[in-house]
Amino acid sequence: MTNKTYNADLSRRHFFSKAAAAAGMAVAPGVFLRQVHARPAEQAATSEQRWGILIDTNKCAKGCDSCVTACMDENGWGRADASEDKSGPHQKAQWIRKVTIKDKQTGHVQSLPLMCQHCENPPCVDVCPTGASMKRADGIVLVDKHICIGCRYCMMACPYKARSFVHEDLEDQKVVAPRGKGTVESCTMCVHRVDKDGTPACVEACNADNHNAMYFGDLKDPNSEISRQLKDYGGEQLRADLGLNTGVRYQGL
To answer: pLDDT for 146-200, tens place per residue?
Structure first.
């Protein structure tokens, strides 16, 4: 499998303000953010980083869908796009969705967000006949809408059912998240934000609501918060038996 990269024509900006320009910034007791810098726009994504998201299901509030709403608003799918009102519920886009799982033996019920798991070995990329499904060097899995032919092999190959197909003409699309009728789409990990040292909208919304159930960062950086959380408390992959080495991990399962 070959990693494919692309250059995003994005201007550089810093996530942290000047006031936080020191080596680290405390955002909550015991929680520190480490300053990082955006790579130049002309520089391709690098394998020196691997972006990931960690979700603590114990902190994921039942009935809360702030992460889903934030993704809709940021990327212009779902309710943010009224032109999709002709699609049936089972056909609508769902870049991220809340699911409920129940342990049949104990009856324990959990609620968690489910999106593209940004696999190191993504089945969607393996089956794509045109190369539209691709994985960047930094681990983010994307769909190139220009060469996607809508065969939907990738949707069938994804064990997480994390991809959806656009059936209708679209209106009022977001510049940062172009979509297209007849193409497949899924969570981009808000790559337009990541390339500017930002945080995915879902993670930002979760923290803004003080749930703090989601961590985003570089899995290859041992000093990143996500790496520290995984080191101290562990994390699990969904369907780890498939050997996909997902970039999205869960705690509390």
So the answer is: 999 999 999 999 999 999 999 888 887 899 999 999 999 999 999 999 999 999 9
Which residues share a beta bridge with 101? 110
DSSP-derived 3-state class of residue 142? strand
Residue pLDDT, tens place only, 45-103: 899 999 999 999 999 988 899 999 999 999 999 876 666 766 677 778 889 999 998 88
Residue 215 and residue 124: Cα distance in Å, rounded? Answer: 25
pTM of the model: 0.82
Q: How far is CA 104 from CA 100, 110, 194, 233, in A?
A: 12, 12, 38, 25
- Residue 229 CA to residue 27 CA, distance in Å, equals 15
Q: How far apart are CA 176 and CA 169, in angstroms?
A: 18
Cβ density class 114-125: b for 16+ within 10 Å, e for less: bbbbbbbebbbb
Q: What are phi and psi of 41, to 5 degrees?
A: -60, -30
3-state secondary structure of 78: helix
- DSSP secondary structure letter of residue 208: H
Q: How far apart are CA 187 and CA 190, in angstroms?
A: 7
Cα separation of 102 and 61, whole Å? 15
Q: For residue 42, how many C-alpha atoms fall within 13 Å in the half-sphere facing its CB? A: 0
What CA–CA distances, in Å, run from 213 to 34, 115, 191, 229?
A: 18, 15, 20, 11
